[in-house]
Design brief:
By secondary structure, the chain is an alpha+beta fold. It is built from three helices and seven strands, in the order ββββαβββαα. Strands 1, 2, 3, 4, 5, 6 and 7 form a seven-stranded mixed beta sheet that branches. α2 runs antiparallel to α3. The two termini are 28 Å apart.
Length: 171
């Protein structure tokens, strides 16, 4: 079986409002027709830095613009591409971005929906445990910056997909 490596970059984009912090999540349907809620991310293009990719992918997939504040971490996992008949080892680098402008309705066609949600709600919506780990790190950073206690709900076991345990996290 053919194998290859792939690198992507994405982000957690947030805005602070009077009633708390909000982040944008995106949704799409996977090959099996299941609704997936995730963080915006995508392939690094030739000549692009990881940060530039994160900014571009967040803009394309969410319709909003942001500036990079910090690298949050990275995740790594294997998946199989039927199209390429290849097993791919993927590394995704994630950054925390501060919202500058834009409208989530202006997302690209790869995404079914982009939605601002309360930080606490985002943890329960994310489909993959590896991305919940990234969101936990973003929450800790934002709590430190804003000096307020932001509750992080515990994740229920039934929210984890059966194959999600195969996704190893390096953070």
């Amino acid at each position: 079986m053919k194998t290859r490596r792939h690198t992507s970059s994405g982000g957690v984009i947030y805005k602070a409002k009077e009633d708390g912090i909000q982040v944008v999540l995106i949704s799409h349907y996977n090959q099996r027709g299941k609704l997936i809620w995730c963080l915006p991310k995508g392939s690094v293009e030739k000549g692009e830095s990881l940060q530039e990719t994160a900014i571009r992918e967040v803009r394309e997939e969410t319709g909003v613009f942001g500036r990079v504040l910090e690298k949050i971490g990275q995740i790594q996992y294997w998946f199989y591409s039927k199209e390429e008949e290849t097993k791919i080892f993927k590394t995704v680098h994630f950054y925390l971005l501060e919202y500058l402008r834009g409208d989530e309705k202006d997302h690209d066609s790869e995404v079914d929906e982009a939605r601002w949600v309360a930080l606490q709600e985002a943890m329960g919506m994310l489909t993959h445990s590896s991305e919940r780990t990234i969101m936990e790190k973003a929450t800790r950073y934002l709590t430190a910056v804003y000096g307020q206690k932001i509750p992080v709900p515990s994740v229920k076991v039934e929210n984890i997909l059966p194959n999600d345990t195969d996704n190893s996290s390096t953070i």
